[in-house]
Amino acid sequence: MTTLKETILRLPDSPGIYRFYNEENELIYVGKxxxxxxxxSSYFNKSTGVNRxxxxxxxxxxxxxxxxxxxxxxxxxxxxxxxxxxxxxxxILLKDDKTFPYICILNERFPRxxxxxxxxxxxxxxxxxxSSVVAMKNVLDLIRKLYSIRTCSxxxxxxxxxxxxxxxxxxxxxxxxxxxxxxAHNEATYKEEIEQARNILKGDISIVYQYFRxxxxxxxxxxxxxxxxxxxxxxxxxxxxxxxSLVVNRALTDIDVLxxxxxxxxxxxxxxxxxxxxxxxxxxxxxxxxxxxSDEDILSFTAQQIRVGDNKTIFxxxxxxxxxxxxxxxIPKIGDKRKLVILSEKNALExxxxxxxxxxxxxxKQFEVLSILQKDLRLPNLPxxxxxxxxxxxxxTNPVASMVRFANGKPDKKNYRQFNIKTxxxxxxxxxxxxxxxxRYKRILEEAGQLPxxxxxxxxxxxxxSACEALKExxxxxxxxxxxxxxxxxEIYYPEDPFPLHVSKKSPxxxxxxxxxxxxxxxxxxxxxxxxxxxxxxTEIEELKGIGKQTTDKLLKHFKSVKKIxxxxxxxxETLIGKQKAEIIKGLDPVKxxxxxxxxxxxx
Length: 604
Known about the structure:
Pfam families: GIY-YIG, UvrC_RNaseH, UvrC_RNaseH_dom. The protein has 604 residues and is of the alpha+beta class. 47% of the residues lie in helices and 18% in strands.
């Protein structure tokens, strides 16, 4: 059974929301955070200065779930959506006092819309509480820009208005109020505007948008262009308020998002439910895979279990077979739809990381090494994935580079990469480093692949600066930790830091970095020797009169080495390249051939 302490240690250092559940698995609190791990940890670290309601909340927590977001602002919107949808009782209890403001539509003949810190249901209809005063005032300002809602506190009874007891104020003269106090604003029209404002406060902005759009088009058809322009200005105001966000985006509505990330034994499925352009539900589950069970089968089965509501569109990263005929499955490739799928994939990946760490155990040696490395290098996240780059050339010839990838502190050899330098001439390690780092992460971004937790550069300040230039061009600089490791003194260099970091030579974290660096160097040298060997052999064979590049490539592809070419029978050669060329090859000087073989043997 995983303890709360273990769960907190594995929370991500990312913006998003966290959810607390009690013993009955009831959602009791939703909160937002710029850094989920730090924010949740603060609940359990504080022993003084905490009110009784918060202490009671902490005492009831039995499980913690989270949803990562792309930004702190998205986390704020996501929190608001979840609170509206689920109404967790501690969100009400903790905010049911003068600390947090509400917006209230007062019970009056011409209702005012005000903000207040006192909650009294008899006074009017309340919306909130708002955890951000700025967000609350932005909503109130929007309503006042869109509608002519009075701000005075006059008693506008029918008798008082008929007896003309009041005079219009400055708000009337500057156009913010239409003068209900003198009977200039029809009560039915005023109530219609209040109803539109109520939709905004409920979060139904799409209804308001359609209302303004319809009236703008009607005014334009009736040649009332000034009126149409006023509605257009209101639409523009509404657009500016509704910040482009994946969490609240009117263009993405009534959709389910399902993504899967799997290993050989387990699959991790994330589900996002989107209604009225807002993410209102999120769930990530782990599924034990059966033998030869595909991701498509798992996601299709899990979709039936995890989906709620009646959304008719499913976005996913693999095909989903749905039972309902009227449900459409789409695999987005570009744009905001694709970004929404990527957000879902991030949440599936976070659960995958958590579960893998959990299975390996907190006392796992490799986990301890990674934790030490995280502390040594002051990294924001556990360096579960490290990618290291190195260059290799001989006097500027055959320049190549390599990238090795370590996952969970172990070589991930199937994801090693070799690079032929394409844009750099001569021995220029700095330019070569910029090229390969740029090529690697440009492709990762294009394919929406997983970025590493640490980029390691084999070299000092020069190579590191070149790699940073490549990251800046891709807008990744500062988003992925990067460091250089110098060979002589084993110093660690950070971008824009003139002084190196000295890590204890006995630190397991430094030893891991050395292993990663040495592996990258070995892989680069091996690739360079292979390339140089092939080039040398080709040069020696091509020097023979009558043997060209095409024939050389054909021989090496078939026989793999000069030694095997020499040992081949005349008949084999004749079948492959013809009688005339076979005679030339068999007449090859034995001394020269042996020399080539020796070169090849020495290189390998």
